[in-house]
Write a structure and sequence with these properties.
globular, DNA-bd_HTH_TetR-type_CS, Arc Repressor Mutant, subunit A, TetR family transcriptional regulator, mainly alpha, DNA-binding transcription factor activity, 2 domains, Tetracycline Repressor, domain 2
């Protein structure tokens, strides 16, 4: 079963009819992703999904015209996670750290278990019929991240371009991490792989060139947090954090 990602801004309770539509929508996504990742895309029929969700074939088509549309809806939930993570980080969070935390936030929302998450990722990334879904997903993630990042960058002529460069490099790192996870057949957890890829990416961009034109790089530890977030946490400040900040005298904690 996938984890529900509902908008936090929806404060008014849903009517019984609206709640039923939401429940049916989620039941269809959960049933479809479970069957598709277990049996395969081509071997799973619309009737199979409808039966697993406890609805009729006709009702299913009122929600999703095709099986691929169900997968698209599932990937859309991950877009909401990315955007919300960026928007909830404090203003002082550096762009690269913010990006790393947003990408890491997606991982636990893929599925409740690592085994299910690997099956979902393998389904989407390695099913030819879902190639267009996968490409649209990454394009949507990139646009959402770039828009959210642009709101936080200093106001300059190149702000939107810088946001898109940062977002695109982050999505490239995420895709590389998933490819490596699939290459390893899920034998390693995906989060350390993602952190390793992000660290390698940051080191490649920042490493100085030697006399021969080569860049000096260090081997990234698989379990280390990504460069840029290693020494700084960009979680939202809590009430106790702000209270401690007010109590601390100027210069407290400074060392000579």
């Amino acid at each position: 079963m996938t984890q529900s990602v509902l908008p936090e801004s929806s404060l008014e309770p849903l009517s019984r009819r609206e709640q039923k539509r939401v429940d049916t929508h989620e039941a269809l996504i959960n049933a479809a992703m479970s069957l598709l990742s277990t049996r395969g895309f081509d071997a799973t029929t619309v009737d199979d999904i409808a039966a697993a969700a406890g609805i009729s074939r006709r009702t299913l088509f009122r929600y999703f015209p095709t099986k691929a549309d169900i997968v698209t809806a599932w990937t859309g939930q991950m877009t909401a996670v990315l955007t919300r993570t960026v928007e909830n980080c404090p203003p002082e969070c550096p762009p690269q750290t913010l990006l790393a935390q947003a990408l890491e936030a997606v991982i636990p929302h893929i599925a409740p278990t690592e085994h299910e998450a690997f099956a979902f990722v393998f389904l989407i990334e390695r099913t030819p019929a879902l190639l267009s879904v996968s490409l649209r997903k990454y394009a949507q993630w990139e646009d959402s991240l770039a828009t959210a990042l642009a709101r936080r960058l200093p106001n300059s002529r190149d702000r939107h371009l810088a946001a898109r460069v940062t977002a695109r490099s982050g999505i490239a790192a995420f895709r590389t991490a998933l490819d490596e996870w699939i290459r390893l057949n899920g034998t390693r957890p995906v989060l350390p792989i993602l952190r390793q890829v992000l660290t390698l990416q940051a080191e490649q961009f920042s490493a100085p060139e030697t006399a021969g034109g080569k860049r000096e790089t260090r081997h990234a530890s698989p379990d280390a947090p990504p460069a840029g977030s290693r020494h700084r946490s960009c979680r939202p400040a809590t009430t106790s954090d702000r209270a401690r900040s007010r109590k601390s005298p100027p210069g407290a904690g400074d060392t000579a």
